[in-house]
Amino acid sequence: MWVLLMEQKNESSVTGFILLGFSDRLQLELVLFAVLLIFYIFTLLGNTTIIALSYLDPHLHTPMYFFLSNLSFLDMCYTTSIVPQFLFNLSGADKSISFGGCIVQMHISLALGGTECILLGVMAFDRYAAVCRPLHYTVIMHPRLCALMASASWVTGFANSLLQTELVFLLPRCGRNKLDHFFCEVPHFLKLACVDITVNVYVTFFAGVIMLLTPVALIMFSYGLIVRAVLRIKSTAGQRKAFGTCGSHLTVVSLFFGTAIYVYYQPSSNNSQDQDKFMSLFYTVIIPMTNPLIYTLRNRDMKGAMKKVLWKDFDSR
User: Fold this and answer.
1) Which of 39, 98, 160, 162 is the most buried (most CB within 10 A)?
2) How many CA atoms lie within 13 A of 149 on its CB side?
């Protein structure tokens, strides 16, 4: 296998790959560069803030914020695996990416995307335990179990990515090196192959079912139990509080999975190439930036921790 992979590397080592992106629209490239740079900075700042607050405030040393810190770190890495290269390609006439760079970008972005799918499912289980089993919550969500579930999410995501990336790069491309996309992504990379890709299509489909649809099913099942438990609460204030603990997570889940399922399971004939690119921009750039906003604006604990940290810094001066 590695011999074939080295042959593929020799085939593309001279020029690497060309990421066409939005190269046919020069004015749009200038606008995208400015907007993406701002979004990327806000993504780093927002997610770093959540990680820092979760570490600094003892009241946030809970399973929910442990998983949220994992999600924030994941989002930063995911965006960083794509946006800097895209900004470089937008800034000039050079639209290339090296063979090794393309492998790394595909592997890391696919791994982190799969990890986020599973992690969001794990976070739904955490919300189920908090709402439906409040008296046993600390016993169920033991720190060791939380660490195990988070580790399993990361390992599964990277294992899936390793398999798919290797299968994709083993395909002969017969000199084709132009990707009609802004980053190295499996579905678009398969279009460069000059052999039958039926096996790869099936592998991608079944991997998508496992990494995308399985967590969605688990999330829907968890929230079904949560809704049933909340409706049994007699007080309106109690219902509002219970739903409030799940609102941020449910919003993030809807945005992430809704976009991902639309992109990966919509028939290609129904989507223009530009529509695919803009939808990919949404889940690779917009969602990682909005996640911190959703969790801070809708979360009293997070807003309280931010005020305490800022007030402490102000007092120290």
Assistant:
1) 160
2) 24
Q: Region 159-171: what's the mean pLDDT? A: 90
Contacts of 251 (CB under 8 A, 6+ apart): 294, 298
Q: What is the pLDDT of residues 226-249, one digit of tens each?
A: 888 888 877 777 677 767 767 788
**Interacting residues of 24 by C-beta distance below 8 A, sequence separation 6+:** none
HEC states along the chain? CHHHHHHHHHHHCCCCEEECCCCCCHHHHHHHHHHHHHHHHHHHHHHHHHHHHHHHCHHHCCHHHHHHHHHHHHHHHHHHCCHHHHHHHHCCCCCEECHHHHHHHHHHHHHHHHHHHHHHHHHHHHHHHHHHCHHHHHHHCCHHHHHHHHHHHHHHHHHHHHHHHHHHHCCCCCCCCEECCCCCCHHHHHCCCCCCCHHHHHHHHHHHHHHHHHHHHHHHHHHHHHHHHHHCCCCHHHHHHHHHHHHHHHHHHHHHHHHHHHHHHCCHHHCCHHHHHHHHHHHHHHHHHHHHHHHHHCCHHHHHHHHHHHHHHHHHC
**Is pTM, for the whole model, over 0.85?**
yes
Residue 120's Cα: distance from chain center in Å?
Answer: 10
The arithmetic mean of pLDDT across residues 40-59, rounded, is 90
Per-residue model confidence (pLDDT) at position 5 = 47
> Given a cut of 50, is residue 2 above it in pLDDT?
no
How confident is residue 13, by pLDDT bands cut at 50, 70 and 90?
A: very low
Give the alpha-carbon dihedral of 56, 81, 284, 290, to 10 degrees: 20
